[in-house]
Amino acid sequence: MEGSQRQKSITRSARSAAGGLACLQRSHLEGVVARKPRRLRQRGGNRRNLRCAACGHLITDESERIAMSGAHLHRCTNPAGYTYDIGCYRAAPGCGSAGEATGADTWFAGYRWQIAVCGSCGAHLGWRYASAGCEAFYGLITAQLVPEQ
Ligand SMILES: [Zn+2]
What residues pack around ion ligand 1 (CB closer than 5 A)? Predict the structure, then answer.
């Protein structure tokens, strides 16, 4: 009986550890189904604009932040071994897209991705994710966006 309780607590800590893994691994291991986007509550009416780090073009603002698969921020590694810290946004009107949409190696199960670039200077800012049944969203590289002062 003591043994089974111990087993339960190990399972629980393993689950919470899995929550911190890269979403690529999570979706492969558990087949995580992307949950409906949840708009994050505003902290003190914070709606700062977020601009392209390279050229200052207005990309989106902090009120567009959403949580996908339970979190706004995700650390994701692509098959080439590059790791990105990305934040999820409902909309990013300052982004353009590049290339064809594909579902290959997606970080969000059920979503196809397309490269998102700055609409002004063309810098790679992240990815646009689209799914047949859900609203599209953007996963933007945190280091590529700067909040307006
Ligand atoms: Zn730019």
Answer: 52, 54-55, 57, 118, 120-121, 123
Centre of ligand 1 from the C-alpha of residue 123, in Å:
6
Q: Give the structural domain span for 13.
A: 3-147
**Interval 47-85: pLDDT, tens:** 899 999 999 999 999 999 999 999 999 999 999 999 999
What's the gap in Å between 5 CA and the centre of ligand 1? Answer: 54
CATH code (residue 78): 2.170.150.20
All residues at 6 or more sequence positions from 58 whose CB lies less than 8 Å from its CB, including other chains: 49, 50, 51, 93, 94
Domain count, the chain: 1
